């Protein structure tokens, strides 16, 4: 007799995991079909593409905060850095995506490695404030180097992106490209979370002193998480600049950093999938609520407070609780 047949609990768990995987696959397929559902509504497809970029950005912050517990108040630094570097490379060197995007990510990782070597040695509020300071320094550099970056007007005139020499101009093609990057990033993040590296990160998040006591290189692993988070954030920025054909100084502002943090909290810190949902929901809600009232920030602030108090696990936590209740009723 198999183990599953001998143990009903294991059988139920395997069945639940199978349903969860099937549900995730169904959601992924449904996301890929968005261009077909938005036929005749090009703006809605553009908004969906923006939401996918926001989801990648939210995932990048959760790689750091959700894995190691390091809270960044200046994650927009890497978002804006990626946007400006990619835009400048496309204008001055080549619009080829297979050159621009990897170069941008590598540049961000190098800068993050240098700055992170100092930042990750700090803990708590000190780390958070220093990341905010870093983002404001990058924000100021945009205006200092206005001859290159365009200053207050932003970086304009980014050429149409190409892939293997073929220009990408169709909105549907753009969406599938962005969606493919999101799925690849999410799959890689989930794999890392289940790997020994991910488990070491989680041990640091739970208790850094105990992790150091058992021989884990706490600062080294924090730095690795910081660099990977910065690289993925810069990837989101590069895609945004190439998608919009421009980069704005607002991408580096403290307000943008606050929005990214809201993505993660709304979806559920440390859940990976949750922040992706949070970025998508926030993007659509921001558009539709702001079209109804100019005081939309008040409503979002209230929602943020409500989620922190009532549902600290975010959207993912609420969905997980509902799923467990359904399974309990089934048993």
From TrEMBL:
InterPro entries: ABC_transp_permease (IPR001851), LivM-like (IPR043428). It holds the Pfam family BPD_transp_2. The keyword Transmembrane applies. GO terms for cellular component: plasma membrane. Keywords: Cell membrane, Membrane, Transmembrane, Transmembrane helix. Coiled coil: none annotated. This is Branched-chain amino acid ABC transporter permease.
């Amino acid at each position: 007799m198999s183990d599953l047949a001998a143990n009903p609990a294991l059988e139920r768990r395997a069945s639940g995991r199978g349903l969860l995987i099937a549900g995730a696959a169904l959601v992924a397929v449904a996301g890929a079909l968005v261009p077909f559902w938005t036929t005749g509504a090009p703006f809605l497809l553009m908004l969906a593409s923006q939401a996918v970029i926001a989801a990648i950005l939210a995932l990048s912050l959760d790689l750091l905060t959700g894995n190691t517990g390091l809270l960044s108040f200046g994650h927009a630094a890497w978002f804006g850095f990626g946007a400006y570097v990619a835009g400048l490379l496309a204008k001055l060197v080549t619009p080829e995506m297979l050159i621009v995007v990897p170069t941008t990510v590598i540049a961000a990782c190098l800068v993050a490695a240098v700055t992170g070597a100092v930042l990750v040695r700090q803990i708590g509020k000190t780390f958070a404030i220093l990341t905010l300071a870093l983002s404001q320094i990058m924000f100021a550099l945009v205006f200092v180097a206005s001859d290159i970056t365009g200053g207050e007007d932003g970086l304009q005139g980014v050429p149409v992106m190409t892939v293997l020499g073929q220009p990408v101009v169709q909105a549907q093609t753009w969406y599938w490209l962005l969606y493919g990057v999101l799925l690849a990033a999410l799959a890689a993040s989930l794999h890392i979370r289940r790997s020994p590296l991910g488990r070491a990160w989680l041990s640091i998040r739970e208790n850094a002193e105990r992790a150091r006591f058992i021989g884990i290189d706490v600062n080294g692993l924090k730095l690795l998480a910081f660099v990977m988070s910065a690289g993925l954030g810069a990837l989101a920025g590069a895609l945004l600049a190439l998608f919009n054909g421009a980069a704005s100084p607002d991408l580096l502002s403290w307000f943008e950093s606050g929005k990214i943090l809201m993505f993660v909290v709304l979806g559920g810190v440390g859940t990976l999938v949750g922040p992706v949902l949070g970025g998508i929901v926030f993007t659509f809600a921001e558009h539709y609520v702001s079209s109804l009232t100019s005081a939309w920030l008040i409503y979002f602030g209230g929602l943020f407070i409500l989620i922190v108090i009532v549902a600290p696990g975010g959207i993912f936590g609420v969905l997980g609780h509902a799923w467990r209740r359904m399974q309990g009723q089934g048993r």
